[in-house]
Design brief:
Oligomer: single chain
Helix content: 25-40%
Number of domains: 2
Strand order of the largest sheet: 6-7-8-9-11-14
CATH superfamily of the largest domain: 2-enoyl-CoA Hydratase, Chain A, domain 1
Number of helices: 11
Strand content: 15-25%
Radius of gyration: 20 Å
Largest sheet: 6 strands, mixed
Distance between the termini: 51 Å
Mean pLDDT: 93
Number of strands: 14
CATH class of the largest domain: Alpha Beta
Order of helices and strands: EEEHEEHHHHEEHEHHEEHEEHEHE
CATH topology of the largest domain: 2-enoyl-CoA Hydratase, Chain A, domain 1
CATH architecture of the largest domain: Alpha-Beta Complex
């Protein structure tokens, strides 16, 4: 085991003493496994459960994956650990708070409760030095204005909601947020609508938050109220609860940050083979803030969600399918 003030690395081949509950307050814990599986009931198993996530080497030819959502297979353990060290050391407060929120939003946590926890943590980081440093380097702030940022189309009992900002890979702005909220409220108000398709025009479904708009809300308390009182996540979850698998999101291209967070709420997630997924928020000194600490763990567990956030790495559509983040990968002719 190696430890610094923020990051602890645990070798599951020789983990030493079992973990204590308080270990999770010592910072981010990354476990490393060289085996094909983690023996149930072992000290290694206890550490894998306690860790933020576990990484292991990619499978050799002929080996198959397991359903252990605590484990992420990577091409190079050493290179991955180095990337995690860089990400965590650059924004240690964001990394530890992200870990705290993922642990707090346990399986079964209600959407409103989870969003509140996430947003309060996000607001804390908005008032902190890590985000301030990124914001100072970013420069210009400007609001995106567009009347047709989100398109609504109905054919019979099916509504299609389409992000319509293709020149910016549908970067999620206040205009897109307002349009999406209007569309989802329309669906919820009309019981004759029995299926919904959610998608995006252009090269990407949604490349994440519009970074140009970051910094427009200077009061973290006001920002928290805006996120929780005007939340697409609550409405996405309500539509999924009503329609189930008939609430489908068709995704492609860059599905990053808030784009991934929102897509994960939908009942059926269909991706094109070119789709890439990631959570880049830690690089800004923030955590996922569009409900992703609720929606993504519901699909892949807190461990793989933590890996996406703390490594800064992206995964492809086939990996997302294997994890359960995507339900189908479909070629488009």
């Amino acid at each position: 085991m190696s430890t610094n003030s923020v990051l602890t690395i645990v070798d599951l081949d020789s983990p030493g003493a079992p973990p204590h509950e308080l270990d999770s307050f010592g910072g981010v814990i990354v476990a490393v496994s060289s085996g094909d599986s983690i023996p149930a009931g072992s000290v290694a198993d206890a550490w894998a459960h306690q860790a933020s996530f576990t990484i292991g080497a990619s499978f050799a030819i002929g080996e198959t994956d397991t359903d252990d959502s605590r484990l992420v297979r990577v091409d190079s353990v050493d290179e991955t650990l180095e990337q995690i060290r860089k990400t965590v050391s650059a924004n240690p407060a964001a990394a530890q708070i992200c870990d705290d929120v993922l642990r707090a939003n346990l399986p079964g946590t209600g959407t409103r409760q989870g969003l509140t926890t996430e947003s309060l943590a996000y607001s804390t980081l908005q008032a902190g030095p890590e985000f301030a440093r990124w914001l100072a380097a970013k420069g210009r702030c400007a609001r995106h204005e567009q009347d047709d940022a989100v398109l609504l189309d109905r054919v019979d009992d099916t509504v299609t909601i389409t992000f319509n900002r293709p020149d910016r890979h549908n970067a999620f702005s206040n205009a897109l947020r307002a349009g999406l909220i209007d569309g989802l409220q329309t669906v919820l108000a009309d019981e004759s609508i029995t299926s919904v398709v959610f998608t995006g025009n252009g090269r990407s479904f949604c490349s994440g938050g519009d970074l140009v708009e970051f910094g427009l809300l200077t009061d973290p308390a006001d920002a928290h109220l805006a996120r929780t009182r005007h939340s697409p996540a609550l409405l996405l979850d309500a539509v999924r609860e009503r329609l189930g698998a008939r609430f489908r999101v068709d995704i492609h291209g860059a599905v990053l940050g808030s784009g991934l967070e929102m897509a994960a709420y939908c009942g059926t997630v269909v991706a094109r083979p070119d789709t890439v997924f990631g959570l880049p928020e830690l690089g800004l000194g923030l955590i996922p803030g569009a409900g992703g600490t609720v929606s993504i763990p519901r699909r892949v567990g807190r461990w793989r969600t933590g890996y996406l956030a703390m490594s800064g790495r992206r995964i492809d559509a086939q990996t997302a399918r294997a994890w359960g983040l995507v339900d189908r990968v479909v070629e488009v002719s």
